[in-house]
């Protein structure tokens, strides 16, 4: 805990009683990227900056990213390996620093080229994970992703030799964005944090993405904190909450109400950071102004919310997450191999995930109270722990209904309606 | 929809479902998988981030009744142009119907010019993700020959 870097900034803000809020933001134009970072910094909130990379850079198709830069074709993010280093340094000049650390967000199962590019321009914070940026996200074999992430952690960890404190955030608390019961989200987030730690990273954040039920979410973050305290000794860690990552409300009042609930979850659960979503989320990539409005709304809700974390143990989510983490750790002393075995044997099994390395036997549903539950645990070691309600096969309309559950509920309420959500 | 990723019925020509080259989204593909099965189709779901070479190899191997490309990450237009141009280079795949749909641009639905360009490049139909787009896609499915429903 060296007091420098992304993790230390977030810890200082938390100690001062403030929630750090952060956008997802990436534009291919360097001028617009710089303007977006400046606007984030100058928002009336405690913020950190984001450079979200484009999809070509994410999948390693650097030729397409460079071609788009040359031809001026707008991409869905900033092509950090397609621009000259001097260009990116100029984007960050006078902005990135101890008072406003910038994180690179990407989504890659093979992020070595990304980590090289970000360290080359003086950055040291990123996110992802060997499972969460592989299974739901493409076609890279899990075995390859584990190897890539091991190498990438070590690449980033080498910055510690020069006095920096590189930071990594797990994406494991968000697998597939929606319809994954929280026990599995918490387990994967903890396992990825342990993976980072074993490969030299000492400043870590663990993610949890807001799901369908506020009480279940609060239980999940409490479970996550309890497991991190147990499994991440001698580590600077914090929890980052993602505002809902599934189909977002289409109305402005619905979008702000859901974002507000995420801010309440973050503060009440004792979390240190929140990544926001915007009113534009259901339609397109948000503008800088929409992101600033979302950051300020989240910060305002956070400021009037009290910390009131639940007891970590004794909940369904804690029992499921603990059983999954312990079962995976027992498979192999090498955590990378343990993760491979876990997915090969169905000990971990992400519902509805199409990746060939996922067993694909588990299924989930939203119950009448709005909680995410298992309809099939497949071969996961949750017998007698999870409350399983077997269901007939889901139809396309039912799937769409479950995917739209949160959107519908938040769009339905008029502005000013008391939050009976 | 079980088991993934291929529903068993070796007799029928399947429908190939594929995410865009650079698109990691999955739910659109799960939904299409179920919808196509409900319309009596056998589905081979190639999942997200499908490179052109993989799609072409699978199409040559499986002789699909239809290829459905789905993209929601904003790169659908550019990725989709690349994919169909490469696909149509193969004379064996010249007659296979190929459609594309989703959120195809980073600034909202594609305009008339982009739809025309996608069709000129080789798509038989282009669907946006509006209710009208989904309804049009369902009509396309209803017009396909179905395997026997059991």
From TrEMBL, chain A:
InterPro entries according to UniProt: Cbl-dep_enz_cat (IPR016176), Glu_mut_E (IPR006396)
Superkingdom per UniProt: Bacteria
Entry-linked SUPFAM superfamilies: Cobalamin (vitamin B12)-dependent enzymes
Keyword Isomerase: yes
UniProt keyword annotations, A-Z: Cobalamin, Cobalt, Isomerase
Protein name as it appears in the record: Methylaspartate mutase
Protein's organism: Streptomyces pyxinicus
Automatic annotation (TrEMBL), chain B:
Transmembrane segments: none
Any Pfam family hit: B12-binding
Limits of the B12-binding domain: 12-150
Name of the protein: Cobalamin-dependent protein
Highest classification ranks of the organism: Bacteria, Bacillati, Actinomycetota, Actinomycetes, Kitasatosporales
